[in-house]
Amino acid sequence: MSSQDIPEETLPSKQGEAHEGAVAVAGDPFADPGLPPHEHRIQDIDERAAKRSERAVAFMFTLSMLATIGFIAAYLAIPVDKNIYVFPIGHVSAMNFTLGLTLGVALFLIGAGAVHWARTLMSDVEHIDERHPIEAPSEVRAKVIADFHQGAAESAMGRRKLIRNSMFGALSLLPLSGVFLLGGLSKAPGTKLRHTAWGKGKRLVNQNTNQPLRPEDIQVGSLTFAMPEGMKEEDHDFQNQIAKAALMLVRLRPENIKDKKELDWSVDGIVAFSKICTHVGCPINLYEQQTHHVLCPCHQSTFDLSDGGRVVFGPAGHALPQLRIKVNDKGYLEAMGDFQEPVGPAFWERG
Question: Whole-prediction pTM value?
Fold first, then answer.
């Protein structure tokens, strides 16, 4: 059927808009069918169902409050260095896992409660509002305000006091999570930066073979990486420990050692220095035998291992910390204590 065969009053306007309230006519694809009949929810006709929905929403808001309280309790009670095993993730920080879980549950329950409230108790009657020019006249602004008040009334905020009070409680407690997180910014590291896994009597273990080291295992001009005895790569905190305890051993000829303290802390020319660069903490692994220099590959800081590990080039701020070593009665190399100064980058309390 062509457009000439359709009565003029049923055709769309020139702008392509259907006439308001037009009745669908056979063969007219542009007629406005109107809104379907409104279907009432069970909560609209049964007050007992409405009460059940109200209790469900309040229950979710209450659980959100409990989750927030759990967040605060976890922050205060769980040690920072405690780890737990979570399948299938593996070993994770107990505090971080608990904080993330409780905060996520608290936020989810507030959102789920609000959605359930809107879907079951707030008015779902469809309203048609015709388009209007961008510049709203005064009567439209008055209508918007009236619609807002009508929406507030239809939300049953005043009548559903259980929902209102529990929602306010959940929203009031939730910001406390952020307050307690900010509290963590004020905690000083204490002496953690000054201590590593090294200690008196700890044998030096080859990091590649996991075997205790003897002086004869280290040749003149060689570079060997070591770690404290008892550390294993499968340990959950291995990466945190090795980041501070990583050690490099170089055997020099005693007559080539310039620093007296370094000579006293060595064994037959074997010197032990921290492997962690004092610039930004990169691992040092490049050794030049002729000059006794080690080079950090990140920013080319260079240290002289024959002169107390001092900086000879690059942005590093201070020398590499040296570990005092000796040979025990079984012929193995062992530490005589921990590093006497913090390893890695400088911090303001270094002196």
Answer: 0.51
